[in-house]
Amino acid sequence: MMDNLSEIIILSSATIEEAIKKIDLNGKRGVFICEEDKNLVGIIMDSDIRRLSLKNINLQTSVKTIMKTTPFCIPEDISLKKKKQMLIDSDKVLAPIVNKHGCVVDYLWLDDILEDFRIFTKESIDNRILPSQKVLVIGGAGYIGSVLVDKLIRRGYVVRVLDILLYGKDSLQIMQNSNVEFIRGDCRDSDVIKQVLEGIDAVIHLGEIVGDPACDINESFTIETNFSATNMILEQCLKKNVKRLIFASSCSVYGQNNITVVEESTLNPVSLYARCKIESEKVILSYRCEHFCPTILRLATVHGRSFRQRFDLIVNLLTIKAIAEKKIQIFGGEQWRPFISVQDVCLGILSVLQANSVKVENKIFNLGDSRQNFQISQIASFIKRQVLDVEIENPDKISDNRNYNVSFDKIKQELGFTTEFTIEDTIEELTKAYSRDKLFQDYNDPKYYNVRSLK
Ligand SMILES: NC(=O)c1ccc[n+]([C@@H]2O[C@H](COP(=O)([O-])OP(=O)(O)OC[C@H]3O[C@@H](n4cnc5c(N)ncnc54)[C@H](O)[C@@H]3O)[C@@H](O)[C@H]2O)c1
Coil, strand, or helix at residue 373? Predict the structure, then answer.
């Protein structure tokens, strides 16, 4: 459910091609066809378009030629519970919510009800951070943060975002929502933190200098941001009676490791970035308060599309180079690394937020999926398979020594978390965005690269 309906509504004067674009962007498998006043006249699902595309339909024809003119609708004036039940009982994954004049005022989407199933299958209902509660996302304008904020508001959370906007304002588009309050500020400043924690139930802390090279630019600034600020935020959370803190750590804490590592494995950091993570983890776990539930997530290397795009992450970088330059360079290639899509990272964070606190308090989880460990050379093969005519160069030089194969059994067993998206999905998504939607043609812009922006 959302405030900004324009993502899911298209005018009846639009073409099928415009409908496809909108469906690709909104990720909801469909669009509602409306008149100017949002009066609903039809619905198109991507399955309708796929079926018809086998018959070579002309994409420039009007959406009216293929839309379903008597769509399944949910009335506005019934309870949310009943609305969800209507969607569950129907064979639909997406339904408009309409007022008595037949105008679209909102919608229900599959995720809205699946999320409820997840909640109800847990053993107890205590201590969860559920929709309508207030969540602070520090670093919420960043690569992961912006996708997370979007997901939180779609699920009905009230969100406050604190971000200093180191990498521009691209992601501010999603903050234009009555359930989001955006505050531009520095999380190293305790006055700012005290102010933003007011009335907050849970904090998700993603506001750091991210990546080994970015952290090496100014070591003291990195330590202040990635360690001291985290410490201060934690203390303020305890004082302000915040119930939950989720801290984004990284699998790079495992550094160079030749065995499959689990949460208890010996850590072997090879960078300041990883060392700051380890120290922050220790501080967070050192507090044992009954009312406070901190959880540490060690994220695999992330890929995929975001409102604040990054092209300094290996899958994203190699893919965009392959598409735009038809040539990629692989340094070494034998190193193992775990991967996870940005969508799945956010789903993982949500599942921790909504889990009973006894399952997650004072715990560390690797966040990823054991099936998604790959050697860098395998990433190149995936790309070569999907982006045609790509030349792969293998210079005799290794710039990154990290090598770790990670087990994600704990999060699977204890929270039932597995990933939904693959590296192939990201390659496809970025290829479409670049080639069809003409996005990211400026992929060399420093705003997409943490190091280039900070220098
Ligand atoms: N992206 C990955 O592959 C990955 C992997 C493992 C862990 N992580 C962790 O996930 C978190 C988010 O990473 P990301 O990829 O979204 O990075 P990002 O650089 O896109 O986002 C970080 C955000 O924090 C903000 N920020 C930085 N310093 C701040 C300050 N002093 N005050 C307020 N805001 C500040 C930045 O403006 C930015 O919007 C980080 O903690 C990172 O270490 C990311």
Answer: strand
